[in-house]
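User: Hey, quick favor. My workstation is busy. Could you predict this chain's structure for me?
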Amino acid sequence: MADARSNGLPEILRDAGLYALVALGLCVPLISYRTEAGPTGLELVPRWPVVAAFCAGIFVLRVLQRLVLARRDARKRLTPAPDQATEAVGAEPDAGQRFSGLGLKVFLAVALTLPVLATLASGGLGPARYWIDLGILILTYVMLGWGLNIVVGLAGLLDLGYVAFYAVGAYCYALLSTTFGLSFWICLPLAGLFAAAWGMVLGFPVLRLRGDYLAIVTLAFGEIIRLVLINWTDVTGGAAGISSIPRATFFGIPFTADEDGFAPRFGLEFDSMHRVVFLYYLILALALLTNLATLRLRRMPVGRAWEALREDEIACRSLGIDTTTTKLTAFALGAAFAGVAGSFFSVRQGFISPESFTFLESAIILAIVVLGGMGSQVGVAIAAVAMVGGPELLRNLGFLGAVFGEGFDPNEYRLLLFGLAMVAMMVWRPRGLVSVRVPSVSLGARRAISGAHVSEGHG
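Assistant: No problem, here it is.
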């Protein structure tokens, strides 16, 4: 009876009104007034219609959420609980596992055809280079998210300094290429090895730490790396960074207009888009290599050890698993993928500085892993597309000016709208977009075999 009363319409409206009231309190100091230049100086222009729209939206969303939750609770009370033991060893994949497999195929299909789609749609949606550059940025964060997913999603080690390994890979390529003249294809694996070595350096001091203490130490490690890059001016260039970084070549063939360039070598007309498309497919190949390596490692003993460590470290030790090696391999492999991504970032930008590797980058990558669903590959990919591409797509909401007035600029609110969407998603899906963890080992076949032996014995 108490649940029925708590899910009644008056209680739902009261709760939604409280949410709208809190939203009003937050909107008043943030967006209720706008400073504009007037004939007598700066003037405060009220924007109460925008505030009212935000509060009304919060009210409606909260009502819908409570109604959906009430319906779900009613279904749970009417549905008998299944046998957990039978469900755990079932051989049939559930809907979440099937969605993960389908989602990766859809992601791969869209990623492979993005340059063609961008070229076809460039007439009405902007230049093709903009969309391909956005795709490169998204795929870079997808690769970083898949790398951090090894540490956080599989091994259960909270890492807030992941951007440090990203910086190590970027500076590794920049210094080796500008100082020793090494090519990108030689520096790419070297950047991964250097970052993996630094991952092990971080792993040793934090072997006995877990939870919040581990997060604090990894956060400090990321800040130490950034401060070293700023103050070691003789090597890293300090705050000015490193410029004139050599560009990537097509296995030794530069993307230039001379006779030895890519276009004349293959009988094509020179176009600067050749290099952009090459970089796009390069980061796509690196991201898919990261995904393939992660999926393979999950089915190996080291991957099962990561999952056991994530669930219960004490039980993991009692089973005879070396937790020291397990943690170090997770840190090293996650750092290696970040180093490779950093090397690509360096060759793509042609210039790097410590300002590109702040704590905000670590927070974004960690948010991608958490929002996508820890341990889920397709969830991380979807979250990266939403977090990186979402704010960019909100730039094209110019039609909202006709709704809220000519002074309404959607670019001022795109991060606010995106933040509200993230909060709503965490309320609706607190375990991430794809929260189903695909088991590395299925006991269904073993159970069927044991049942057959029992039947033969009785026979």
